[in-house]
Fold each of these.
Amino acid sequence: MESGNPSKRPREEEEPEETAEEATQAAAPYQPPNDGKYDIIYADPAWDYSGRQMHLETTVTSTALHHYQTIPLQTLKTLDVPSISAKDCLLFMWTSSPHLEQAIELMKAWQFEYKTIAFVWDKVRTNPGYYTMSQCEICLVGKRKGGSIPKPRGARNARQFLSEMRTEHSAKPNEVRHRIELMFPLQRKIELFARTPTPNWSIWGNEVVNSIDIPWKT
Ligand SMILES: C[S@@+](CC[C@H](N)C(=O)[O-])C[C@H]1O[C@@H](n2cnc3c(N)ncnc32)[C@H](O)[C@@H]1O
């Protein structure tokens, strides 16, 4: 039986007191950078499937269009991402396997050079495919043309692979954002086509309150 006398119980670790700076940071809403430029851009574009199903499920509700508005590649290219990119900037971009070519084309249009596959997400469950059963999505990384990898760098041992059961349509695992934060803790970050806010990140998309405006070039 637990002792009723608090002085007899083992002492719990005392919480360290919050510093004034930490308290201010916790209270202040996140401010986008003054110059509107970001070092890390994390994007999950609303790829257009031209009305086709993403995989061969029998229900028509599996198409992206049933969940959100999609954007043709030519239109995506006109989003003025270069105007929000710092000189040294990385673009992390999700793509489905059938959109790989389009994703690299889009990176080029946004003035980034494709570098490698940063993350491979094993969604644990399979979907039927035309060739093999589809199970993974990939997140590419590109570097701003003429720029370098943003410095200072954080963790250099982030894993490429993660295995996490998929949840609602198109939702990507938070773990990927977390790994990017570990890799680039001090950099200014924005998520494009976001559906939820993340502390200390700017966000932009038609389902969230945008941190900044990004023009579409005509
Ligand atoms: C693939 S989903 C993003 C999913 C998100 N990464 C997540 O983990 O939940 C694409 C998002 O882009 C949004 N979108 C579609 N058309 C848009 C537009 N013209 N401008 C901004 N966002 C748009 C969609 O509504 C959807 O929220």
Amino acid sequence: MTVTQETLQEALQKYFGFDAFKGNQEAIIHNLLDREDTFVIMPTGGGKSMCYQLPALMLEGTAIVISPLIALMKNQVDSIRGYSQSDDVAHFLNSSLTKAQMKLVKQAINDGLTKLLYIAPETLTKDENIEFFRTVNVSFIAVDEAHCISEWGHDFRPEYRRIRSMLDGIGQDVPIIALTATATPKVQSDILKNLGLRSEHAFVSSFNRENLYYEVRPKGKPEQAMRQIIQVIKSLSGQSGIIYVQSRKAAEDIAKVLQVNDIKASPYHAGLDAKTRTKAQDDFLMEEVDVIVATIAFGMGIDKPDVRFVIHYDMPKSIENYYQETGRAGRDGLEGRCIAFYSYKDMLKLEKFLRDKPVAEREMGSQLMQEVMAYAETTACRRQFLLHYFGEDYDHENCCLCDNCRYPKEKIEVTQEMQHALRVVDELDENFTIKTLLDFVQGTETKEIKDYSFNKKPSFGIGKHHDVNFWESVYRHALLQDLLYKDVESYGLLKLSEKGRDYLKKTYPIQIPLNHDYEKEHVDTSEDVGRTAVLDEILVGLLKDLRRREAKRHNVPPFVIFQDPSLEDMATQYPISMDDMTHISGVSRGKAIRYGKAFIELIKKYVEENEIDRPTDFVVKQVANKSKIKVNIIQNIDRKSPLEDIAESNDLTMDELLEELYAIVLSGTKVNIDYYLDDTMDEAIRDDIYEYFLHSETDDDKVAYKALKDDDITMDEILMVRIKFLSELAN
Ligand SMILES: [Zn+2]
């Protein structure tokens, strides 16, 4: 079928009411209508489905659309039906249908009413269905989410591998259109090969998302990352965003912390029942909820145009995942912030999960993670890195929308080192991964190196005088500059390009930025969060003076008022209201009211006089973290159970129980163990210990024991009275 530009425009207007095509759409549709195999690589949001929907409506017969997700088929069918007068225009065929429903679908196809049939690959394999399609007038076959064919894609589905043989079974000579939103050169080559596409009519759209800002921050401690996340969300208050995590528990925990910090958030993961998941999704779309904290299970088929930020609390397992997930931000073309929290230790943990997998899968998984690490640690433009990963050139000096371009690192000049790095690739016959090359250059005698007797080579250890980060930077830069490349067939092995060979003949200086070394770099260096919470030593001094005065006034020892860690937390958080004060560690509401007023006043005055920019205008509230055991202990004490019984039922020794109790009173909770002391301890001894603590400078148990042991007082007695004492006076 040959169509003119006019008829195509008319068809677009007629069937969908649009005036103009986007990007490559028109060329792609022409190609398909000319009965050519067509390969479409287009990022999400580029208008991929139009490429097969419009020709399907225009052509005689039924187009078969192979799609991996049964859950999404209904949506796709509904959306097409929305443009038509008859429901029969589109159907789906999958395991969710009854026999009778399937029969009706097949009838509609036979009657020539159905233009698009969505089908899952496992339905297509069934003999009866293949038989059926042999008799049908098929217009063309569309393979959606074609990257599912490749083990190197982010969503491998084995049944996709069988598509070619199914199509052969149907035995119709019709064109195939394969579509994907993500494809590295390796995945592309897998798709072409596996589907046996007849020509190489590939239409590749740019993967550059100009409106996305990319940033990677060192993760540090979980609380530090959490604080930054809340800061970002508060600065975009009321806007939609997604936080990606690796585990269900993290999804639950983080959603809870956000909720107690007055952020409308919901968890989303595969462990939730279907109803809860649907509700979370709907709430997000309807803006009842601003933030979804999700494992990767979230996002397929979610098309919310105004997602303003995507945060990776955990790094994803591959660059493809990262690109897909960050790609959900800013679909409307307005800015989307993509912030990832990187921790080398997290990556090692992820790699450990691969251990039980078959060798091939393990190696692949580890390769993909290496790329994620390289992305996190690069100081080159992140946009350039991502696009290069997808085989696309990006030549701009500065993209202005990534952290590395905004805050460039100083570059160093290399000539001889680059030459060494490339020569080593050549010397090892272009047969090794970056890891082996680094070992070789550094002179590390690994088993592999010895097995190949590489340690006998003259240039073994040629780069000893620089550290591994330096050489990793050199190799990574050589890849980015196309002096080296990774072969598609033998993925991961570094090869010399033409340009690289030329370089060996004629060298020239190259400027390279050294990779981030997050272990050394201070956590929180980025400008937006530059106001890191640090301990204010001067304020600690002032607070300690105040504590001394207050202790005198209340006639109690200073440690009863506030313990040192609480003062330090105050000198970090600068609480200036009663509410702020209750969020200081070890300060309960009761304690804040009892002793806090003078401290708040002092801090307020101090902040004003010194014009202190408080680290945050909010305080990150923690979810009340009382372990099950603590709760059980408190409940049992309320019931006046003997301490021995409480210890036994919680599988604790008496010492451990007393330690738990001490922690409970220190965290600001009152417990009354008088009922137990009345039964077990001489009143005079109890008073002696109480009196001792009242005049002691410290609540240290060993100091107390030293002072009291001559009176035949035991450690247990001291520990018990200390609990009573702190509970009564401090809380
Ligand atoms: Zn950049």
